[in-house]
Design brief:
The protein has about 300 residues and is of the alpha+beta class. Helices cover about 30% and strands about 20% of the residues.
Length: about 300
């Protein structure tokens, strides 16, 4: 992580994911899965991690890895630890342990990735989308954040992420689902993070974040790409999910089956585990009030 002239940190996410993968694939580390690393075994685990994270100060790394003791080590716990360490190299180098997030001690600019967006209605009856974000680096690394954004606010943020300012532009914004997969830099503040990491300000994407987002936009824009499945419709309208396509904007591929409400064969989202078609789910959501999600501006 480096700092830009305007005091915003610049994260090397390629390096973060490269180190994360190296830790996860290291056989000297993987052999501890299913064991309770204590005593000499724990020291051996620390040494194995040090090979993959040589920049880390030894005591800081050792204190960070204490979170893996006391219970059998799982692959999920190992993956989370690998990501936290890779996403906080500056802290480890400075001798600061990287611990699971419990509270936000100070304001911190961190990179996020939008991993989901679905139609939603605020408790005030305002239509918009519920977006889910994954923290990619920084002290809340790996944590999930959910926020309600109105359609108007989504449009504002979309331009900050790399979409064209006008519909006639090269990368026009049409729907919140188009933002799934894109990365952004936000400021996590203690005042907003009493129940979990939270933010208000979204910094305009620049450098590697803007390059990543524009690359994703080019791959999804019909005029600048050839769909692997030869489809011609926009990616955010596609039924194919991330389980079958890297460019998808939702997790699982939609399936067609009978809806118990409208009694028609329509598309269902298997990720919801409901027997309502997507049209009926959205209609029900529009009718319901009272959810407690936080609203964007």
């Amino acid at each position: 992580m480096t700092t830009t002239p305007d005091s915003k940190p610049r994260y090397d996410l390629n390096r973060v994911f490269r180190i994360k993968r190296a830790i996860e694939q290291d056989l000297d580390i993987a052999c501890f899965v299913g064991t309770k690393p204590e005593g000499a075994d724990f020291d051996a685990l620390v040494r194995a991690f040090r090979v993959r994270v040589p920049i880390a100060e030894r005591e800081a790394l050792k204190k960070s890895l204490l979170a893996l003791t006391g219970q059998p080590l799982t692959r999920a716990a190992l993956a989370a630890m690998a990501w936290r360490l890779a996403g906080n190299l500056t802290s480890l180098k400075a001798g600061q342990p990287v611990l699971p997030w419990s509270r936000q001690q100070k304001a911190e600019w961190v990179p996020l990735q939008i991993i989901d967006a679905k139609p939603w209605m605020s408790k005030k009856g305002r239509k918009g989308s519920l977006l889910q974000f994954r923290v990619l680096a920084g002290s809340p690394c790996t944590r999930l954040i959910e926020k309600f954004w109105s359609r108007e606010f989504c449009a504002v943020v979309a331009r900050r992420l790399g979409f064209s300012r006008f519909r006639s532009g090269k990368y026009p914004w049409q729907h919140p689902k188009q933002m799934v997969g894109m990365r952004l830099l936000v400021e996590i503040t203690p005042q907003l993070s009493r129940d979990g990491p939270d933010f208000e300000h979204v910094h305009p994407a620049s450098g590697s974040l803007l390059a990543y987002n524009r690359s994703l936009l080019r791959a999804r824009t019909p005029a600048t790409r050839t769909c692997p499945r030869r489809f011609t419709h926009p990616c955010h309208l596609c039924a194919v999910g991330m389980d079958r396509c890297d460019l998808a904007t939702h997790a699982r591929t939609y399936v067609t089956r009978l809806c118990r409400v409208c009694r028609e064969n329509k598309l269902h989202d298997p990720a919801t585990n409901e027997d309502l078609c997507m049209d009926c789910q959205e209609r029900r959501m529009r009718e319901e009030q009272g959810h407690t999600e936080k609203e964007g501006l």
